[in-house]
Every structure is written in structure tokens, then in C-alpha cells.
Specification:
This protein is mainly alpha-helical. Helices cover 56% and strands 5% of the residues. The strands form three sheets. The protein has a five-stranded mixed beta sheet with strand order 6-5-7-9-8. It is elongated, with a radius of gyration of 28 Å.
Length: 586
């Protein structure tokens, strides 16, 4: 009786969906999505000085929408503003006009984007298997997965992929042409690289692989493909025609001359191990934390189960739209290969695989779990064999318990859930000091803390590891030269070099950290250690960093350290602020 009750309440007997069932499971999906987002919001508002890690790059410059006088002639702010997709920047601008600070919007958006993505994930799953409980499982695993990575919570351009791409998949399966085209346009506005994935899927759908390889016999596939490719061309054309003052895109030859692209570098990409190179990291197929939650592993079983669908009655209800899953993978793999062929011109290869894989596996795992549970719940019990019946009942209850535990309580078993990437500023007095200074000041520093100043103090910095993004050579050449000039000046034994540096860049303040003039600092600095540990001898920064470390080990004293007694204007714990004008007048 218990088994029949579970079977009746959890699994539909036919493809007709009850509206009450849909409402219940859809509402439950949104509740869990909102619950995970609320956990993220708790971290977002845990302190006055909290910022998402990637927002330090992609959102700080938007404070110009609030105050146009911020970051004047700022190389870093100008660069990140120039590379922001037009829809993304105007989206934040519109809310700034309404009085909502971009940093506040950045913290609130993940909740909204997560709910939209969950809604479309639920609807998309129903197009493949019209069972609300399966759609719920898919959305639950999907949310557990994306909240173990900081894509969605960053509210940067890549956070818009999931709601927009899932909307595209849903409307494509429903054969709704106009909404499908609209989603392609919005993807072009917010994350143009994924327009290629949409175009790839539309082209692949022109082929029918059910009985060999032949052209599709369905007219709507040709209509969608022609219209979709036309829209994709138009939405990508402005990007192709747009000229950037920070061009060109870095070439492979240039990248191989920079430490930043090697293991332990700021933007590590190249790897001597060919397997690792194509399997993981920015260059690889598999994204980090793909199989979190562990229920994602069930997705690997779906192709096997589909070969034996006669033994799983539920799989007979799977619609023909399940073919979109391999189509997604083929399109992603095609762009992955293209991104390697045209390295860096199509951005990073891994970006084309990871989001598709997360969606494909959540749908596949949900279908597999539902099929297995349905098969277990449908076992016929023989009334005259009590012991056998008891054993089977115990097995079913244990299986149900494990399934529920994995689905609902899995986040309790892993650390750092949700993973938000929120960074907490620990030196309010330092931020307040700089915020009280004129808006056109420039701060020089190689400390890790300098990365927080554009966000928390709204003041310009000369360099910062967080902003060392090397893909546009026009930008990074200037940025890297600043790094070279700064560390040479900071550790020069000649005060004239320090003064020349200040005058060249019109520096107003110099931020130092305790121990900055020791060899250990060079070896552990988040900015400099990548060069100190590198064996890429042709890299100029590697030689400079190692020479400085050796000089400090020999007991040589940098000239800048001698200005601390007279030129210190602020002291906050281990941080010291020097007045650049005072240094020049020494």
C-alpha cells in the first residue's frame, strides 16, 4: 500500500500533466532557488564593505553612472568599461538612473537571475520529459551546481547566460520563433560568445540522426535556422566592426612570452601536460565542480538507460526534444575547437563547454533518477513471500532515503555552500581616508589591499592584480609597463628613480604594507610571486623580480623606505600611506 501511494503521488502514469502538480513542483523549485539565493544575500550584506570578487573588475567603473567625476583618465576603468557588452552596461545604467547603486544592484541581481533561470530550466525539462517531479529534480540539482560556482552570483555578463540560454532552449523546443529570436538578441547584448552556441544548435538541428545521417524533414527547423542565423549575424556585426583602442587581441606567440599564462600565473592557460591542457582549466573541456552535487553522476547513465528504455516505462514518455541535449554538446564542442584554433579571439575555450555541460547533466541526471525510482516503485510484490516482500520494501525505502538525502540535504555535506566569492574589506579606516581625498587622485601600490580601493574608496589606482587581465595587448602592454615601473621604483636604492616615477604617472599616494622591503614579501606577494616562482627567463618581469629579491637578501635598502618617517600621512594596522608630494620634496 505504501509503495502504491508513493508511486501514485510522485510519478505520473501518462504524459498528461496536472496543473496542480505543475504548480506544486514549480513553486517548490522556486522556493529552493530563492533559499539558496538568500544564503548568498546573507553574505552579501554581512558587512558594510562587501563586494563580489569579479564585481571588482566589471562593476566598480559603473560608479561613474552615479558620479561622472569618478575615475578621470583611469586606464583600468576605461578598459573595463570598453569591454563591457552593451546590454550589460546599459542594464546597470538604467537602474543607476532610477537611483539604485550599481554595487547594490550587483548583490540583488543573483536572486532575480536565479529565479528566472530556474523557471526556464523547469519549463525546458518538461519539454523533454513532461513530468513535473523530474523538472523539479533538474532545477534542484541545477541550483546546487551553479551555487557552487560564482558565475551567477557575480552578476557579471556571464551571470546572464543561464536565464537567457535556458529561455532560448525552451522556446526552441516549443517551436516559438519570435521569443527564440529575442533570446538570441539578448544573449548578443549580454554575452555575445553564446550566440555562436545558439547558431550552432540551429544548424545541427537541420540534420536527422535517428536513422543514419540525413537532412531533417521538419520544415520549422529550416525556418528557425534561417531566421536565427540572420539575427545572430546582425547582433554580432557591431562587435565585429567595433574598433578598440586596446586592440589587438593578444596572439598565442605573445601569450607564450608572459608568465601570466603559465601555471600559477594570474591567467594560467598553457600547460606542459597535454591531457590537463585539453581536459581542465581555462583551456579544457570539463569545468571545475561539474559533478557537484554528486547526483550529476547519474547523468552519465542516461545514454545507457535509453538503450534499454523498454525496461523503463517512464523513458517511453521522453519526447523527441531529448535530441537537443546531444545537439547542445555538439555545438559546444564545435565552438571549443574553434576557440582553440582562433585562440583568444573567441575568448576562452572552456567558456563554451562548461555552461552547456551543467545544463545537460542536470536534465540527464533528473531523467535518470526519475526513471530508476519509477522502476523501483513499480516492482510487483508477491503476497505469499513476506520475507522477499519485506526485503524489497526495505530496499525501496533505503533507496528513497538516499535519493532524498542526496537531492535535498547535499549542500549540508559540502563546505563553502553557497560559493559566492564575496570579499570583505577589513580596513574601513583606510577606505575612508582615501574617500576623503580629491576624486582625481592616483594611488600606487603592489599590495593585495589596493584591489579594494576602486570599489570601497572610489579612487583610481595605478595597478592591481585583480585588474591584470592580459587578453587585449593594447591594454596589457600599458598595464604591465606600470607594474615594471612601480616595482623598480619601490625597490630602487636611488630616490631620484622614485621621484621620476611619481612625476611620470602623477601619483598622489603610495600604499605600503609592513614587511614590503623584505625578500619574503617578494616571494609571497600575490602580485609578484608568480614572477619570482617562474622559470620563464625571457619574461622581463621575472628577471626584475628575482634581481630585487636578491638585492634585498644582500641587505640593500630601498630609498623609498627612508621616506616613511617624514612622509607618512596615514597608518592603518599593517598599512602605511605615503604622500607622494612629500617624497618628491625630499
Amino acid at each position: 500500500m505504501l509503495i502504491k501511494t508513493l508511486n501514485k503521488s510522485l510519478l505520473a502514469k501518462n504524459t498528461k500533466i496536472s496543473q496542480k502538480q505543475v504548480f506544486f513542483w514549480f513553486s517548490l523549485s522556486l522556493i529552493f532557488a530563492a533559499g539558496y539565493a538568500m544564503l548568498g544575500l546573507q553574505q552579501a550584506f554581512a558587512s558594510e564593505y562587501v563586494v563580489q570578487d569579479d564585481a571588482r573588475q566589471h562593476v566598480f567603473w559603473m560608479l561613474r553612472f552615479v558620479d561622472p567625476n569618478l575615475f578621470p583618465d583611469d586606464l583600468i576603468a576605461d578598459y573595463f568599461q570598453s569591454v563591457a557588452p552593451v546590454g550589460y552596461s546599459n542594464f546597470y545604467r538604467a537602474f543607476a538612473v532610477l537611483g539604485i547603486n550599481p554595487l547594490l544592484l550587483n548583490k540583488l541581481l543573483p536572486l532575480v537571475l536565479g529565479l528566472i533561470a530556474t523557471g526556464y530550466c523547469f519549463a525546458f525539462c518538461l519539454q523533454i520529459l513532461p513530468l513535473p517531479i523530474t523538472a523539479f529534480m533538474a532545477t534542484l540539482m541545477f541550483n546546487q551546481n551553479i551555487w557552487r560556482k560564482d558565475d551567477l552570483v557575480s552578476a557579471t555578463p556571464r551571470a546572464f547566460i543561464y536565464p537567457l540560454f535556458l529561455a532560448f532552449l525552451f522556446y526552441l523546443c516549443r517551436k516559438s520563433l519570435f521569443p527564440c529570436l529575442v533570446t538570441i538578441i539578448f544573449l548578443g547584448f549580454f554575452y555575445p560568445q553564446y550566440v555562436f552556441i545558439c547558431a550552432g544548435i540551429l544548424v545541427i538541428r537541420l540534420w536527422d540522426f535517428s536513422n543514419g545521417i540525413r537532412f531533417s524533414q521538419q520544415k520549422h527547423n529550416y525556418i528557425f535556422c534561417a531566421a536565427g542565423l540572420g539575427v545572430a549575424f546582425l547582433v554580432l556585426l557591431p562587435y565585429a566592426l567595433k574598433s578598440s583602442e586596446y586592440a589587438p587581441i593578444i596572439s598565442v606567440a605573445q601569450a607564450k612570452q608572459l608568465t601570466e599564462f603559465y601555471p600559477k600565473g594570474r591567467s594560467s592557460f598553457f600547460n606542459d601536460n597535454t591531457f590537463d591542457y585539453f581536459w581542465s582549466g581555462r583551456s579544457g573541456i570539463l569545468p571545475k565542480n561539474l559533478f557537484i552535487p554528486a547526483t550529476y553522476y547519474f547523468g552519465l547513465l542516461l545514454p545507457i538507460l535509453m538503450r534499454f528504455r523498454s525496461r523503463f516505462s517512464l523513458l517511453r514518455k521522453v519526447t523527441e526534444e531529448i535530441m537537443i541535449l546531444p545537439q547542445m554538446l555538439l555545438a559546444a564542442m564545435g565552438m571549443f575547437v574553434a576557440a582553440h584554433i582562433f585562440l583568444f579571439r573567441l575568448h576562452l575555450p572552456s567558456r563554451y563547454m562548461e555552461h552547456n555541460l551543467r545544463i545537460v547533466f542536470c536534465i540527464s541526471a533528473a531523467i535518470t533518477l526519475t526513471a530508476i525510482l519509477e522502476a523501483l516503485f513499480s516492482i510487483n510484490y508477491r503476497q505469499n513471500k513476506y520475507s522477499n516482500r519485506f526485503l524489497k520494501l526495505s530496499t525501496l525505502l533505503f533507496t528513497a532515503f538516499i535519493s532524498v538525502t542526496l537531492l535535498f540535504y547535499y549542500p549540508l555535506f559540502i563546505q563553502n555552500f553557497p560559493k559566492t566569492g564575496y570579499q570583505i574589506g577589513e580596513y574601513p579606516a583606510l577606505y575612508d581616508f582615501f574617500q576623503q581625498q580629491p576624486k582625481d587622485i592616483l594611488i600606487a601600490s603592489i599590495t593585495e589591499e589596493v584591489n579594494y580601493l576602486p570599489t570601497f574608496s572610489q579612487r583610481s589606482i595605478l595597478i592591481g592584480r585583480e585588474y591584470a587581465i592580459p587578453y587585449h595587448f593594447g591594454y596589457y602592454t600599458k598595464f604591465r609597463q606600470r607594474v615594471v615601473d612601480l616595482i623598480q621604483a619601490q625597490y630602487s636604492q636611488n630616490l631620484a628613480d622614485v621621484k621620476a616615477f611619481i612625476q611620470k604617472y602623477q601619483v598622489d599616494f603610495w600604499l605600503l604594507e609592513s614587511g614590503a622591503f623584505t625578500p619574503q614579501y617578494i616571494q609571497t606577494s600575490s602580485l609578484l610571486k608568480q614572477y619570482y616562482q617562474s622559470n620563464l627567463n625571457q619574461d622581463k618581469l621575472v628577471k626584475i623580480t628575482k634581481d630585487i629579491s636578491q638585492s634585498l637578501q644582500q641587505g640593500n635598502v630601498p630609498a623609498l623606505s627612508k621616506t616613511l618617517p617624514n612622509c607618512t600621512v596615514a597608518k592603518v594596522k599593517q598599512y602605511t600611506v605615503l604622500d607622494a608630494k612629500c617624497i618628491v620634496n625630499q
